[in-house]
Write a structure and sequence with these properties.
Elements: E1 2-14, H1 18-25, H2 28-34, E2 38-44, E3 47-52, E4 55-57, E5 60-62, E6 65-73, E7 77-82, E8 92-103, E9 106-119, H3 126-151
Length: 158
């Protein structure tokens, strides 16, 4: 087993109300609907178990799930850390943060996400594995972003 990690930092200014973005980011069912590759989320208070659809590449096929502790600062930020149940190990985990801030034309959404995976591959495969992980995260992020924009109502202008 070797451990591989990738980090994504991204942000976008949306012509949307902060509240409308927030309610979508904190609702597990909505996140599943908006996020390609996400099969379901089991939420129990601040503990969320994320279940991804089957992922396959370079001879490895996984249907990963990972447990996250979620910390919500209403309409401001969401922090999450990988926290597998006691006595259990999970091959994939995430850690990161979403931040929301008002802009003159709507809301800025910023995100930092680090995915770590323990895989039955040699360390020498690291560059290829990280590239595949990065490509998958970009694909998921682009899909989520497009779906979120399509799901948001027009911004109320005061």
């Amino acid at each position: 087993m070797s451990t591989f990690s990738v980090t994504v930092d991204s942000g976008a200014d949306l012509d949307a109300d902060r509240h409308e973005v927030w309610v979508r980011l904190i609702d597990p069912d909505t996140l599943v609907r908006l996020t390609p590759g996400l099969a379901r989320i089991e939420a129990d208070g601040d503990t969320w178990v994320w279940h991804l659809e089957k992922i396959g590449a370079i001879g490895i096929h996984l249907s990963p799930s990972f447990t996250e502790t979620m910390v919500f600062e209403p309409e401001t930020s969401i922090a999450f850390t990988h926290c597998p149940p006691d006595g259990e190990s999970e091959r994939i985990g995430a850690a990161g943060r979403y931040e929301l801030a008002d802009t003159p034309t709507g809301v800025r959404v910023s995100m930092t996400l680090t995915i770590t995976a323990d895989l039955p591959l040699p360390e020498s495969a690291g560059e290829m594995v990280r590239e595949l992980m990065q490509d998958k995260l970009t694909e998921l992020g682009d899909g989520f972003g497009a779906n979120l924009l399509a799901d948001l109502p027009p911004r109320a202008v005061s």
